[in-house]
Amino acid sequence: MSKLKDILMIVRHTNQIDKILKDDKYLSNRLEAEIMRNVHSIEKGLSLVHPRKLFGLEKINTMLDQVDRYVKLSCINMNIIHMVVDALKAYLQFHSDEEYLELNYIKDKVSKYIEQFAVSETPVRGGAIYLLSMRR
After folding, report:
1. What is the DSSP-derived secondary structure letter of residue 23?
2. Of 71, 90, 83, nearest to 31 (Cα)?
3. Does residue 40 contact residue 60 with C-beta atoms inside 8 Å?
4. Lowest CB count within 10 Å: 36, 74, 81, 106, which one?
């Protein structure tokens, strides 16, 4: 009888976990946290005195995949989209002195987000813009 109770408890627990993982709000919160962490990484890289060219490309590509998953959910926070766009625009601005083929994908995504979500062309949220302009 004890084994049966254990099995039932495991099944019940598994069903609860399955519900949580399928819940839009739960997934939305997880993706927001990951996206914000990546945005802050980009901004931190831009705040360095001499950032390495094309730093963080793998992280940026991961973040863009996360944003694509995030915007398909029913409960998104537009501030997250604005933060992403502002940080990526700052990143592209930092690399504007040369043409890098690796950045075309990022440019396309930023343009898509600006159009799709009516994001302002003027950065309003990203801290990286201010730091970049201070360096020049």
Report:
1. -
2. 71
3. no
4. 74
CB 51 within 8 A of CB 93: no
Are 94 and 51 in contact, with CB atoms under 8 Å apart? yes
Residues 16 and 26: beta-carbon distance below 8 Å: no
* 5 CB-side CA count, 13 A: 2
Alpha-helix runs per DSSP H in 56-103: 57-70, 78-94
In this structure, which long-range contacts are made by residues 90-97, counting pairs with CB atoms below 8 Å and at least 24 apart in sequence?
A: 90/42, 90/43, 90/46, 90/123, 90/126, 90/128, 90/129, 90/132, 91/42, 91/46, 91/56, 91/60, 91/128, 93/129, 93/132, 94/46, 94/51, 94/132, 95/53, 95/54
Read off the pLDDT of residues 28-69 as tens digits, 9 standing for 90 and up. Answer: 889 999 999 999 999 999 999 999 999 999 999 999 999 999
